[in-house]
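task queued by scheduler; priority normal; single chain, no ligands, no partner chains; default sampling; output format set to structure tokens
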Amino acid sequence: MSKLIFGCGYLGERIARRWQTDGADVHVATRSTRRAASLQDAGYQTLVADVTRLDTLQDLPPADTVLFAVGYDRTQTNSIHQVYAGGVQNVLASLTAGIKQFIYISSTGVYGPADGDWVDELTPPNPVRDGGRASLAAEQAAYSSRFGTNAIILRLAGIYGPVRIPYLDKLQAGQPIAAPSEGWLNLIHVDDATAIVLAAESWMAGESTGPGPHTFCVSDGAPVVRGDFYREVAQQLGAPEPNFSKPDKASPAAARAAANKRIRNKKMISTLNPRLSYPTYREGLKSILRR
């Protein structure tokens, strides 16, 4: 088994570790030479490559499964569209024949404002933010590529986990959170997200799957109102009751809050049959904050 990962970050490295534990030959691409050295020390075969530069993607190693989980670094000069859509196009154009699966980590940001309604894979995408537009364009690039029938699109809700709970420092300090207390949050614990990626890969390898691309909404299926989420965080921390301030209209927090949707994960559950270790945010927070 051979795997190739673009984007070995918060989620990608956990997937790489699981593949490595299962005995796979794991290749990891990163644009940072320092990060490449660190990943090499962890036992991965590394290559320095930038998904926005086609010339750095020559001679990619053969792989059964390719995972594109690149996040956007806002300190870089490339646009988010160049990284997501352009990056997927460049990688797909550079891959060797024989790829059995191409997995793209997309976002539920491809959906537009929903006024609190439920959305799923049948809901027409209508992104209003740059990240959602770029993710949707990347999905379309995967659909239309020569590997489209082998593609899996995973639209992830907000990933949380160890060292990734927004505003934690403000809660502990009793400072206001610059976000609305109302509106729905859709979440997935990083460990469950990892398990779902592997479950999707295994499912796609089955004989009765049929040609792709296959799209799944990935969440724990238990949306929570933002205020309730942070009240639970505060309670588990023994911190003061959270208070909220109105965010700047142009801020990412305001844009995220405007989406106000609830993600239905029925297809993911019925098709991939994953066992979620953290079926709601309460179990997930407890496992994180008790550390």
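post-processing summary
- The CA atoms of residues 35 and 48 lie 9 Å apart.
- Residues 2-161+187-221+262-277 form a domain with the Rossmann fold fold (CATH 3.40.50.720).
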